[in-house]
Amino acid sequence: MSSPQSPDLLCFLLKHGSTLASLHHNFTSKRTWKKGPNTKIQNTSMKMDPPTIVGYIHQILEEFEKLIESQAQFKPDKEAVAKVIGLINSIIEHLMNQNDDPIHINTIDYTILMNRINHLTRSTAESSSRFSFDESSLQQAHEYDPYDDSQEEFDIEALCHNLDPNYSKIVSFSFPFFFYVSTSIKKKELINWWVGMGFIDDASKGEEILHLLVAEEFIVPISRSRYVLHPRVRSNMEQTSKTLAKHGYESTPLDRLFVLHNGLSNQLVEDQIVAAINTSAYTLNAKTFDRIFRMKNAKVIHLGSWHSQMDYVVIDDIILPFLKELKNLKQVKFLSLQGVGRIQNIPKSVYTLTNLKVLDLRACQDLSYLPKGIESLVNLTHLDLSECYQLEYIPKAISKLVELRVLKGFVINEKQALNNKLHRNSCSFNELSKLKKLDKLSIRTRRMNFPASADVQTLCTMQQLNKLKIRWIRSTRNRSDDSRNDDYGFIPDFPKNLKKLELQAAPEISTLLMLGLIANRNNTSLEKLYIRGGKINMLDTKNYCFNHVKVLRLKYLALLHIDWYEFKSCFPKLALLEIIECPHLLSFPCKENGVWEESESFGDL
Length: 605
Prior knowledge:
alpha/beta; three-stranded antiparallel β-sheet; globular; 23 strands
């Protein structure tokens, strides 16, 4: 009786319109040229930046590696295996050797790619008892083009027809940024824009939509949190743009901003603009703000940096006094100044935007304080102050923002580091217990004895909390030590809905305390635990058991010593483990990349 075949994944890797097929077609087929309207010669082939291409190839390799590992019980299709390896090598070759339009991959990315391909080749060679292929098979693979132009192209009209009308608007809104910026987009940015546009109310709904768009092959994930357009959508850009415009918004480049509007007339009028997102302006000048201030119906204004090709944005000094005109943007629900320099405090005019739901001030390196009045933002659900390292305290009034669901960058400072006036106006940690809807919280603390007993009691009141991140920061002025005299006594249930806990640079006693809060509890939802840096050197394997943790990431733990089998007994349901620069965890059976996975599938974690 012949062995069963398992060709499904290979068929996916090679089918018409797949990531592998489209990339191969784009970089190995002859370039097509046509005359433009001004008789200039235009290249109509697909354009992608090197990081996007590298991301695609890594995704293909990951899928193929999983196939190789699962072939023990199957008789594989050796012709398809040869074609996959040949196609991947063909793409790499063309990337590095294009004479007319070379694409330069940096040395590190290229080395990582080639090492992974060589490892994959060795793995397939070791599996020669299950399948084999020769040089003629590889040569045939290089000549194989699975992208047949006579077959049916990507049907964007069918996609929009299958989607809920509101989802069609999301696709129409998102497509231009994927295409024209030519880079990957973070999940966080997409979801926050959708919240600002009023398409969704919370991040969980955004996650559902992203999974749907991936399933429909509209976008492709290239990492845990980044997405790009599917190659065959990008290759049919003109028809896709026309179709999507009928379902929502038209898009226009405007002074290095990218704006979306309702398309009510042929002439662009600021009143029609619903979103303005900075794509390439490193300096925000008077001309930019003059247009922004007239966008009275805009719902999304993103002036800061948000993709890998923009590492900084600054505002002309002469413009700072005129930021009070932001008060004209009464309809705005999303405002981002992420990464914008020279802003030392937020203009009070921002507090007049009572429809605001998302305020993103991440990485504003010069931001040193928030003025009074933030409590007027009664509809605010997301506030991001992470990486604002000049910010020494958060105003007390933030505890009045009862609709707040996401708070990033909350600051906890030593009392002696603040003068009396600042201390009176600052929000203490226990006052956050008033925010009953808080779903995600990240904290930056200079208190080495955080959390004290009162802080633990406050954490236990946050029963809706889903994600918690705490980062401890030492400084020359920080004189406190790790010791604590608190009597914690009876500790009530830690937030039952908490699914992810991340500890960064924690003192050993703080790490052990936090682990003790989540260990040996059957009524917890915790699935992800990340520990990055810190002084922990051991785990109490006899008394600790983390029954629900499925994903564990340990990074930069130079002192941690633990035996693999003792460790595994603490995490009975562990499905994914990642270790980076933990030199004493030598007995752990991780791969070269530091990853260990349970044999059975653990889903999308």
